[in-house]
Specification:
Layout: H1 3-20, H2 25-94
């Protein structure tokens, strides 16, 4: 998650708490509970997104490795075809 966005959201929570302190006690308690629920949801969302990012990075790394392996095998196949062509050409020239 972009650190600036994360800091911005956390600052919004702080600002909300400061504003709530200006309200009467019953309204404060109700709003604070609501904000705490949103903070919990935000932290859960952060954890979820972090896990998904890690999974995506792992898949990206695996994909990069697979592409490299495919390139290696492709070059080996081309080399093998070249050898077969050389053998065929040699046998044609010999006969």
């Amino acid at each position: 998650i972009n650190l600036n966005n994360q800091e911005h959201i956390e600052n919004l929570f702080k600002e909300a708490r400061q504003t709530i302190l200006l309200l009467d006690q019953s309204n404060q308690d109700s709003i604070i509970r609501t904000i705490e629920q949103y903070e919990i949801r935000w932290k859960d969302l952060q954890e979820h997104l972090t896990k998904k990012l890690e999974e995506t990075e792992k898949i990206h790394h695996q994909t990069q490795n697979l592409i490299q392996n495919c390139n290696i095998h492709f070059k080996q196949c081309l080399n093998f075809i070249s050898i077969l062509n050389n053998i065929q050409n040699d046998s044609t020239q010999t006969s």
